[in-house]
Amino acid sequence: MDRLDAMAAFVAVADLQGFAPAARKLGLSPSGVTRLIAALEDRVGARLLQRTTRSVTLTDIGARYLERARRILADVEEAEASAGAERTLPKGRLVVSAPVGFGRIHVTPLMSAYLKRYPEVSGELRLSDRMINLVEDGIDCAVRIGHLPDSSLVARGFGQMRRIVVASPDYLSQRGVPATPAAIAAHDTIQFGALAASPDWRFVEAGREIRVPCTPRFTSNVADAAIWHAEQGGGLTRVLAYQAADAIKAGRLQIVLADYEVPPLPIHIVYPTSRLLSAKVRAFIDLAGETCDWQFATR
User: Fold this and answer.
1) Torsion, CA 44, CA 46, CA 48, CA 51, rounded to 10
2) What domains appear along the chain, each with residue ranges and CATH number?
3) What would the pLDDT profile of 207-261 be if each residue is shown by its tens digit?
């Protein structure tokens, strides 16, 4: 048994939740994948996968082994690719995922510059605010704002993002500027639904996190709608800093409660550890490092 082939088969079965799809991905027969997994389990002396007629799930030992196997395979792939990667021109198709608003404003220009620099690459930018599985959806890399719970991804940081509360100057002159998070109760609020599942707004006060319940007068799943309503004097809204940057610069909105903001969210470009970092992905990440200023954490 080739240990690396067996590890690769195990990771594919875990990612795709089945022997048949793993076999198709690896170009093997389902029985061949089954033999590799069985030999791997014999070698480690433990069952890694729980099989039923309808599903394949990880055992506790399998879940721990999966994380280590990913790292080993990624290290091997990186070592094999490192010598020739710099000499290989990016080519083929690059698929990038990003949040809708941030992708439209900041990732689209990056993709355009990338395609101009590397004419042998065709690009696809998929904009979505839902969490996409990179392996299952065939994504080469993704821009993500927020903390990364998925340990199967390799991440490179590119900046930070504040979450801010804003309102129009006219609204604040009429209703007053809230001095503390508790004062929000006396104000109209506008909820941008993509930020949180609940209407509670989080702040930091006296070194501890607090949650302020809000009953919004207006709710939208699109930041532009929430910001526009705030500009019209509709109340306070809580958005990501880049979403309100133009309105703040133009004086249509004003930041409040800045001293109570929670720590900024990290901005990463991520890619799967189970996938070889190809020249096209490396070049995209390098270009982002050269040209993108995604620091939205300064006041």
Assistant:
1) 140
2) 3-85 (1.10.10.10), 92-160+265-296 (3.40.190.10), 163-260 (3.40.190.10)
3) 899 999 988 999 998 888 999 999 999 999 999 999 999 999 999 999 999 999 9
